[in-house]
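Work Package 3 (structural annotation) set out to generate three-dimensional models for the target panel prioritized at the project kickoff. During this period the team completed the workflow that converts sequence records into discrete structure tokens, so that structures can be stored uniformly alongside our sequence database. As a representative example, we reproduce one entry of 176 residues exactly as it appears in the project archive.
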Amino acid sequence: MNKKFIFFFIFISVFTSPLKSFSSDKIVFLDMNKVLNNSEAGKYINDELKKKDEIYRKKIKELEVSIKKDDEDISAKKNLLSQDELNNKITELNNKIKKYQEQLNNNRKELDTLKLKYTKVLLEKLKPILSDYSKENSVSLIIDKKNIVIGINDLNITNDIIKILDNNVKKINIQN
């Protein structure tokens, strides 16, 4: 019994002493989504992406109108056209539809690529800000909020980082 007690005491001492040394470390969390969406630079990125998306939507809408017009034209003239002419018109329409689908996919890919580029540049600008913040405030670890199960709001530094980021970075320039 005495040996078990000594073993248990040593076991508890060994595993609780490292925990005490970590308790003095300051750990905070940051909501990266909020930073990316609510900072001046993040809002600029979202505005640029919306502008680009609107341009793409207009082009796609023009293609849709053209396809619909051609389809109605074929339907109206199908009894008047020879079989060869009808087949040619249908082939042309199918090619337009294929071009439309390719354009849609290309637009989506380009928007995704642009978003990744913009976000990467913003994150590069954010790294030194986070590093300076952690040094000035004796922070040992900054964790993204999405990886936190529960935490007190006093440990949330999101608004502080947004203010610092807004003072340092207003917009992101990307060379296309």
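Residues 18-22 have pLDDT under 50 and may be disordered.
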